[in-house]
Amino acid sequence: MVAGAMLRERGFAEAKRLCYAGLDAPTLLGEVTGRLRRVVLFEALCAQTNDPLSGLPTQTIGDGPIGEREHRTYLEHIYFTEDLDDQRRMVQRRIPVARLSDATGGRLERALHWREISGPLGLGHEVLGVCTVGRALWGKVCLARERGRPDFEEREVALLERIAPHLGAGLQAAVLRARATAEPVGDSAPGVLALDDHGRVVQHTATAERWLREVAPLGPDWLEGDGLPAPVWMVVGALRRALTPGTERELHEVPRVRVRARSGRWLTFHGARTEPRAGRAGETIVVVEPSRPEELAWLRASAYGLSARERAVVDRVVQGAATKEIARALAISEYTVQEHLSHAFDKVGVRGRHALVKRLFFDLLHPALDAPSGDDRLPILPA
Known about the structure:
Blueprint: H1 5-19, H2 25-39, E1 44-50, E2 57-63, H3 68-92, E3 97-99, H4 100-103, H5 112-118, E4 123-133, E5 136-146, H6 154-177, E6 191-195, E7 201-204, H7 206-215, H8 230-243, H9 248-252, E8 256-260, E9 266-273, E10 284-290, H10 293-303, H11 308-318, H12 323-330, H13 334-348, H14 353-362
Helix pairs in contact: 1-2, 1-6, 2-6, 3-8, 6-10, 11-13, 12-13, 13-14
């Protein structure tokens, strides 16, 4: 039974309040979807946060019949085959919510994830909401009903459309509040996992296990591939797509995803593939390491809502380039360079180039760091 207008309005007001309540991302997703459950009928949900730079999922919460094995199958095999492009199109076309029935022309079986996972589990109609700020994807919420139940109604879709941008803003704000640290915590060396073609861990370093446990608890059978954190399977799927690209863009994509660990540190997962050799098949290598300062800075730049051109200007400011050099490199006027910088200053809440670089790079890593008085030289950071 569809909730009445007054109940829907109350649900929207509660969800919107939560989006600006200073919650961390997983808690925010859980609380907002909990409010949705009171006013929208569904039997299964999947909500996630996304890395706005790559668009890839980083953390996922779910409820319903979809378990760990199905979730792994989705991330490793289905997401990169179909859903990644579909969600990118929604973001680019500014379509915040879509019903699966509309996307498939009423034939749910045309969707790969429905054929392989949702349908066999007895699920039917679905609605997907993408949580964006501008054209940066910060998360998504997918609701599903048991097979045989009616489709989501227009007023339910409209409610999700109203909530999605606020949820995007809330997830963005959660990143701004997060503070990673570059201070050494034990061994900061990269960790390495080697997976066979069945997803089993055939080799790993102690550092890799430690980084994985910072992301999520490892299941008792994690060496068999069950219970590994989602970013591992995201990188495996991204690597597969990079090695068999369907478009020019995919040809140049790097299988990499950043995720914030439970300790507050940001970690970067990379993927690679070894060549088969005598007596040993090829293996998938996953490298886990603390994110570099420039990676975190651009994550933060996305959170502040800098446009692509503003980021390009800031990138050259970080390299120590003068206004004239930036104008020449980007083929724009010096006036336009200053205009982009002014907009960046306003969005980040600083005055001047030194303060901008410090806010984006160093406040994120060393909150107490401050340049010596009178020293206005810009630091040169590794590319």
